[in-house]
Amino acid sequence: MGAGAGEVTISGVVTGDSPEKLRRVSVSLAESDYEQAIEAHQNYADVEIIGSLVRRGTRTYLNDARGFVVRPPVE
Questions:
Q1: What's this model's pTM, rounded to 2 decimal places?
Q2: pLDDT of residue 72
Q3: Which residues of 3-29 are buried (b: 16+ CB within 10 A; e: fewer)?
Q4: What SS3 state is found at 67?
């Protein structure tokens, strides 16, 4: 049985920002992407996703999320 869709918070670098600036961005994912995100978290893997950043209060969200990919490990 799958985990279903869900929301995750990703910590990382946003394209265009300084590489030293980490942000926490919340995003709602479809079931298949959510399952991959859980696996990536368990394996300490990097992910990549595209969308539009918006601020709501003190949080940053990614709207229109697409192209979720778990990146291969750097050797």
A1: 0.81
A2: 82
A3: eeeeebebeeeeeeeeeeeeeebebeb
A4: strand
Q: Is 30 helix (H, G, I), strand (E, B) or coil?
A: coil
For residue 33, which of 74, 65, 73, 75 has the smallest C-alpha distance? 65
Question: Phi/psi zone of residue 38: left (φ > 0), alpha (ψ -120 to 50 degrees), beta?
Answer: alpha
Is the confidence at residue 75, as pLDDT, over 80? Answer: no
Taking the domains of the chain in order of start, what are their residue ranges? Answer: 6-70
Cα 39 versus chain centre, distance: 12
Query: Are 2 and 35 a contacting pair, CB within 8 Å?
Result: yes
Which one has a higher pLDDT value, 74 or 35?
35
Tokens of residue 11, six digits? 């910590």
